[in-house]
């Protein structure tokens, strides 16, 4: 065994802070789609290793693909020096925008329990699927899909039938693969009325599919309104009839309350256990694109904000917000004693024995009063 890796491991056992999840936001300015509720991407052009941005019809050299990959790995090296991570979620714009990302994924997979790869599926191919299957056994794909029609998936593909068909083809590829995967659906004014029919569509597929749903936040003109809670109640009432692995019934009941009230009604502990990291090394608290920046992984003095037996009191205290409700609230429900651990581990993203131990440890340290 490499002595450097051994030292890295020993240091992690005795000194590192545990994090449940890190949202690794890669090249958020580049994408092959332009989802209604997402960060607007910058038009770019790739020529060999060179990346050019397009502005006013002119091409300006920005960087090289290899330098972006090197920077991403450098961020992860520094992250894993400071923290022991349960799940690392590759997000940003589109994870598979550049094929070279598989080298970064391979590196990350050595230091975490689960590598979550969030994708719109457009660049997924049989060749890429096969490569990921051979890369590591802890890879999990999260396919972003809001519906199976142009109307229900409008926020992602608008009226682009080609893009929709590519995303649906990605679903078929995942169904035929051995990869762990789920569907991630953002509920907005565009698809809430079709949410039940979309779930019925997924329930008819050749395998039982795991689905994560949550209401859009931060974009006021597409957010769910009080009356939309009726559609969520429809899912609750049909919960046991769907041949799907859904978030717990208590999760949908909490979502129903959130949409009705306009604010969350359950406590949020995520600020103590999850962080956001971008490819510049900036670290922010909370997986929802960050609430407060508290350092950079390249800085020696980046504080550890979480409470942990080996680390004492947190050096940075942040009050959780009350405005959002996301898929990670399944963790909040568990930590608040509203659902059992088994209701989490049945979800494919969390079906890992080491993650189960980590969640149990976090629950033991959580004060709910």
Can you walk through the features of this model?
It is a single chain. Strand 5, helix 3 (101-108) and strand 6 form a beta-alpha-beta unit. This protein has helices spanning 3-15, 65-82, 101-108, 126-135, 154-157, 161-175, 195-203, 229-237, 249-261, 329-335, 341-345, 353-365, and strands spanning 17-26, 44-47, 50-55, 58-64, 83-92, 112-119, 139-144, 180-187, 209-215, 244-246, 274-278, 282-285, 293-296. The chain contains twelve helices and 13 strands. The termini are far apart. Helix 2 (65-82) packs parallel to helix 3 and helix 8 (229-237) runs antiparallel to helix 9. By secondary structure, it is an alpha/beta fold. It is globular.
What's the short story on this structure?
With 369 residues, the protein is an alpha/beta fold. It is built from twelve helices and 13 strands.
Spell out the blueprint of helices and strands.
Layout: H1 3-15, E1 17-26, E2 44-47, E3 50-55, E4 58-64, H2 65-82, E5 83-92, H3 101-108, E6 112-119, H4 126-135, E7 139-144, H5 154-157, H6 161-175, E8 180-187, H7 195-203, E9 209-215, H8 229-237, E10 244-246, H9 249-261, E11 274-278, E12 282-285, E13 293-296, H10 329-335, H11 341-345, H12 353-365
Parallel strand pairs: 1-5, 1-11, 5-6, 6-7, 7-8, 8-9, 9-10
Antiparallel strand pairs: 2-3, 3-4, 11-12, 12-13
Globally, the shape reads globular
Structural category is alpha/beta
Overall pLDDT metric: 86
* Poorly predicted regions: 1-14, 304-316
How many DSSP E strands? 13
The percent of residues in helical segments reads 25-40%
Note the run of SSEs as H and E.
Answer: HEEEEHEHEHEHHEHEHEHEEEHHH
Q: Biggest sheet: strands, sense, closure? A: 10 strands, mixed
Biggest sheet strand order reads 10-9-8-7-6-5-1-11-12-13
Strand content: 15-25%
* Count of runs of 4 or more consecutive helical residues: 12
């Amino acid at each position: 065994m490499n002595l450097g890796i051994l030292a890295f491991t020993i240091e992690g056992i005795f000194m590192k802070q545990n994090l449940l999840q890190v949202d690794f936001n890669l090249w958020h300015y580049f994408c092959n789609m332009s989802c209604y509720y997402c960060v607007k991407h910058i038009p770019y052009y790739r020529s060999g290793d060179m990346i050019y941005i397009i502005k006013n019809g002119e091409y300006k050299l920005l960087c090289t693909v290899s330098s972006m990959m090197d920077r991403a790995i450098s961020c992860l090296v520094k992250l894993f020096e400071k923290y022991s991570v349960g799940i690392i979620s590759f997000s940003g714009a589109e994870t598979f925008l550049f094929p070279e990302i598989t080298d970064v994924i391979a590196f990350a997979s050595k230091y975490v329990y689960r590598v979550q790869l969030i994708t719109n599926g457009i660049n997924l191919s049989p060749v890429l699927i096969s490569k990921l299957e051979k890369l590591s056994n802890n890879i999990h794909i999260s396919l972003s899909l809001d519906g199976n029609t142009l109307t229900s998936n409008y926020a992602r593909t608008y009226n682009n039938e080609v893009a929709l068909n590519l995303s649906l083809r990605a679903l078929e590829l995942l169904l035929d693969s051995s990869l762990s995967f789920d569907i991630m659906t953002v509920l907005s004014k565009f698809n809430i009325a079709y949410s039940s029919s979309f779930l019925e569509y997924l329930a008819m597929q050749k395998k039982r599919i795991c689905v994560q749903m949550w209401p859009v936040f931060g974009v006021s003109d597409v957010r769910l309104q009080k009356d939309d809670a009726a559609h969520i109640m429809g899912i609750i009432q049909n919960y046991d009839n769907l041949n799907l692995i859904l978030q717990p019934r208590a999760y949908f009941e909490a979502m129903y309350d959130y949409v009705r009230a306009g604010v969350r009604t359950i406590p949020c502990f995520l600020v103590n256990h999850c962080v956001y990291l971008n490819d510049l090394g900036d670290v922010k608290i909370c997986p929802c694109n960050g609430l407060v920046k508290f350092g950079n992984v390249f800085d020696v003095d980046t504080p550890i904000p979480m409470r942990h037996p080996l680390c004492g009191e947190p050096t940075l205290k942040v009050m959780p917000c009350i405005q959002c409700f996301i898929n990670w609230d399944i963790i909040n429900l568990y930590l608040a004693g509203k659902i059992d651990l088994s209701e989490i581990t049945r979800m494919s993203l969390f079906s890992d024995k080491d993650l189960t131990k980590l969640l149990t440890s976090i629950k033991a340290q959580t004060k709910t009063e």
